[in-house]
Amino acid sequence: MADLVPLVCLAPAGAGASFFAPWGDAAERAGFALTAIDLPGRERRFAEPPVHSVPAAAEHLHPEVSALLAGPGGGVLLGHCLGAWVAYHLARLLTRAPQPPRLLLCASGSAAPGTVLGRRATGLPDDAFLRTVEHNTGFVHPAFQDEELRELLLPALRADVEAAESYRPDWPGRTPFPVLAWRARADRLVPAAEAAAWQRTAGSFAGLTEYPGDHMSLPEHGPALLPALARTWHSLFPVPATAASVEHPC
């Protein structure tokens, strides 16, 4: 539907577009046209080699996301954990265009860009790497218990973890777009203060919203947050009055 606001979603490290599959109907009810994007090496792009840095991921996704958010209408970029940093870098690229779209960045389960939390995992042997990821996030997908699946899935997860642990944004100044932060109350990787630190980089900070659950519970609890996200979007970017809506005297 033409009146739906584009909502482009980026998954956390090691995950793909299906991370947001539970949101489909709820997104449309809230007024969004949801598109979840796969990074190289994930799900529909499994055959492509994964990228090892946030800027490289953003450059890969830029043409697709630019097409989704083209025109004056713009939309919402939402990323969880690593996906929030890729979304941030993408939003920076998009707003450098001659006619930048209206954008709201929703950063979920993430500290401010370049703030590495938890134990470093890059370069560790497989078992130690997975134990560290589980320690940091409280979760490792059960597929990693299967040796064949582990061999298939580890390269993408390793690339994502390396991208997160190496990211040092060099964008000057505050963002030219507003930022809203989300955080699960029991997220042991991202404390509330670190999630709220997005306000240091945001030209306009739309606040921190907390929801139930832990670091990886966004698929379950996200649908309940979407109506408030829609209200935030419309408060920041109200629909301008058109000539057809203005009454004129006879």
UniProtKB/TrEMBL annotation:
**Top-level lineage group:** Bacteria
**Similarity comment:** Belongs to the thioesterase family.
One GO BP annotation is:
lipid biosynthetic process
Task: Please identify the protein, giving its name as recorded.
Answer: Surfactin synthase thioesterase subunit
Protein's organism = Kitasatospora cineracea
Q: Coiled-coil intervals in this record? A: none
Domain spans labelled Thioesterase? 6-231
Which Pfam family is one of this chain's hits? Thioesterase
For this protein, the record's InterPro entries field holds: AB_hydrolase_fold, TEII, Thioesterase
